[in-house]
User: Which sequence fits this backbone?
């Protein structure tokens, strides 16, 4: 289920990130270890996490994802392994929240993009998800919440 989409201003957020370019089929295998690596690095540096984990997608081809998995931080990030300093950009975005497990993301994004198109809004090439509530906060997928953000032209 999707919340009613809204248009809002999203502020820039300082973050620690790991850049991944992986086949879509490897998403589950790669995402968890990247999140664990990020959290360990920001905790060790004493700068986070300062908010929920996100994924900022630059390019999504049918079989390939080019994105950063990241976590907001409260101060500068020193490079550590694959972890580097990054940010979510300030942007005017269309935003909604998907309720439920991650298997609903493809359909949720499809419905969300249809809504954006019906509104006649111009989209940028990138988009991001914020994992507001997930397996880290509740084992029941019915309680999970993923914020979907589509920057607008």
Assistant:
């Amino acid at each position: 289920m999707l919340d009613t989409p809204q248009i809002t201003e999203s502020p820039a957020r300082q973050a620690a990130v790991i850049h991944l370019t992986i086949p879509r089929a490897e998403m589950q295998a790669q995402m968890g270890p990247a999140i664990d690596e990020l959290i360990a690095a920001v905790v060790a540096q004493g700068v986070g996490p300062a908010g929920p984990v996100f994924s900022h997608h630059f390019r999504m081809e049918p079989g390939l994802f080019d994105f950063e998995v990241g976590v907001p931080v409260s101060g500068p990030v020193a490079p550590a392994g694959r972890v580097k300093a990054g940010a979510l950009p300030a942007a005017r975005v269309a935003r909604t929240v998907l309720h439920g497990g991650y298997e609903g993301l493809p359909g949720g994004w499809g419905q969300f993009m249809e809504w954006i198109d019906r509104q006649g809004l111009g989209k940028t090439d990138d988009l991001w998800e914020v994992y507001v509530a997930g397996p880290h906060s509740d084992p029941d997928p019915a309680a999970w919440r993923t914020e979907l953000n589509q920057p607008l032209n």
The longest strand covers residues 13-23. The CA atoms of residues 1 and 99 lie 5 Å apart. The domain at 6-151 is CATH 3.20.80.10 (Multidrug-efflux Transporter 1 Regulator Bmrr; Chain A). The two ends are 26 Å apart (CA to CA).
